[in-house]
From TrEMBL:
This is ATP-binding cassette domain-containing protein. One of its GO terms (molecular function) is ATP hydrolysis activity. Residues 2-230 form the ABC transporter domain. It comes from the Bacteria. Coiled coil: none annotated.
Amino acid sequence: MIEIQNVSKSYGKKQPLNRVSLTIPEGEVFGLLGPNGAGKSTLLSILATISVQDQGTAQIGGLDSKKQKKQVRRKIGYVPQDVALWEQNTVKENMTIFGRLSKSKATKDELKKLCSDVKLEDQWNEKVSSLSGGMKRKLNIAAALIHDPDILLMDEPTVGIDLQSKLEINQLVKRLAQDGKTIVYTTHDLNEIVTLFDRIGVLKNGAFSFVGTASEAEERYSSDKGSDWVYAMLQ
Ligand SMILES: Nc1ncnc2c1ncn2[C@@H]1O[C@H](COP(=O)(O)OP(=O)(O)OP(=O)(O)O)[C@@H](O)[C@H]1O
């Protein structure tokens, strides 16, 4: 469970988060939406203990993101917006390095299994620099799962990649949720907004303008003229 209470964060005169509150129950796939610059990455980075909020609290599995960073990091896997890999090393070497960094005792077979879960088994001995953008994204996700986190924070994991990799990542997210993991996922993708999430939340002007299921959003934002409810919701 994730509990965010009255979280605020400013950068100079900009205030992307202004007393934001949200509860995400265990096992939920939550879609974090909003226009460019709305504060989605900022909120994820606070949950990932990379940024610190100016005010308010964020609790992850009962642990405080500010005061119990180390313990929180054991509970979360973070997939940043920008791919972060060792390009000159192989997939296997990358997984081994990430395994050491997360102090995981995962065996080679377990690391390989994580790669096969994201359909990267054939690339095990390939250099990262030779992989496609979609493959790199999938490797970043596999790396975030090495320490078997309860919660996965994913910042636009499918932006700018091929359709097949995107659908594979979507399927993986659904499987992880079935296994009981809680997932917070930011996206601008229309199909994902409509199909992937148990609930969505729209960040706008520093706060959530909507939190609920896609059906509830459709009901609220559809007009009689049948205008596009996703567009209306994000305005
Ligand atoms: N380190 C930083 N220093 C200064 N300003 C920042 C910093 N990080 C984010 N911002 C600003 O805070 C606001 C929120 O940024 P954030 O990246 O959280 O938005 P976002 O909703 O994730 O956007 P996008 O959909 O474009 O990824 C933006 O105006 C951004 O320019």
